[in-house]
Amino acid sequence: MTRPITAGVDGTEESLAALAWAGREAVRRGLPLRVVQAWTFETHDAFDLGDRDTQRDRVRDRLSTTARALAERHPELTVTADAVEDGAVDALLAAAADAETLVLGSRGKGPLVGFLVGSVGQQVIAQTARPVVLVRAGDEPAAEAAGREIVVGQHGAPEDSAETLRFAFETAAARGAAVRAVRAWTLPPVFAYSPGSLKLLDEAGGLEPYEKKALADALQPWRERFPDVPVVEHVELGSAGQVLLSTADRAQLLVVGRRARRTAVGARIGSVAYGVLHHAGCPVAVVPHA
User: Fold this and answer.
1) Angle at CA 198, nearest 5°, toward 197 and 199?
2) Residue 127, SS3?
3) UspA domain location, by residue (predicted)?
4) Which of 44, 136, 268, 290 maximizes the CB count within 10 A of its CB?
5) Of the candidates 59, 252, 222, 240, which has an alpha carbon nearest to the alpha carbon of residue 151?
6) CA-CA distance, 217 to 201, in Å (whole number)?
7) Residue predicted with more confidence, 140 or 7
């Protein structure tokens, strides 16, 4: 089954930027595009908003107009549009389950850190098993020009970031772009050393060479699978979030992995993905670990 690129829209400027991004990506990958808008029946004491059928038709008409405009911009693209009567989180989670990638809008950077992605986006990212791309209002196709990289974070063993690297290399191959693979490392506390880890570090020649080898090992299968994709290996001392953000100015897309954790108040994304989503100026792809 061919999975579509799916864009969630709600008529806002940022969701329309996400739709435009999704359309370009679907064309590049030769995939269909699905446009989804969630809606719920509303009543108001002071205004007549119409019955359920009237409200449904109004949403469908607006959505059809939006989808038609995109199809006219990309005649080669197959576009479908669905108005789903459900809460936004549930509708987007259902749409993501059948999608190659879900694309959502995200508000621009500002002083109210913690409110930029929005609760709907954060809940969807934390719960879905599919990649989610967040696009800010004002995102321009020029940012995808040649010379700008796909920046991807790598950590742990090769299997820990396999899905994240897969997404980055597939995106780079479709765009004719280079991949900058970033591995951040920090000095561990003395008590974290064990005889086994010390032996590995000695064999690698020290901490930084060990980290470089770990990155090279993780990249090897993807280099072989995508031999035409240029790769820059970037190993830097520092926190993962800070190192990734320091490279974002040269990125057309920043790709990070996430392992959602459950808390008493629901699923939460990791601190690295959270920080990148709130501070990166380019679109960000969050890819769940397998």
Assistant:
1) 90
2) helix
3) 1-136, 150-288
4) 136
5) 252
6) 15
7) 7
Q: Give the predicted TM-score (pTM) of the model.
A: 0.88
How far apart CA 188 and CA 6 sit, in angstroms, is 41
Which residue type, as a one-letter code, is found at position 78? T
**Cross-strand bridge partners of residue 285:** 133, 255
Angle formed at CA 275 by CA 152 and CA 99, multiple of 5 degrees: 55
Q: What is the pLDDT of residue 237?
A: 87
* Integer-rounded Cα radius of gyration of the chain: 21
Calculate the CA dihedral of residues 168, 169, 171, 172 and round it to 10 degrees. Answer: 110
**Amino acid symbol at 84:** V
Q: Does domain 146-290 have CATH number 3.30.565.10?
A: no
* Torsion sign (Cα): 5, 116, 122, 271: positive
CA dihedral (140, 144, 149, 154) in degrees, to 10, reads 70
Domain residue ranges in the chain: 1-139, 146-290
Q: CATH code for 1-139?
A: 3.40.50.620
* C-beta of residue 134 within 8 angstroms of C-beta of residue 144: no
Pull the structure tokens for residue 263: 């808390």
DSSP sequence for 132-183? EEEEETT--GGGGSTT-EEEEE--SSGGGGHHHHHHHHHHHHHHT--EEEEE
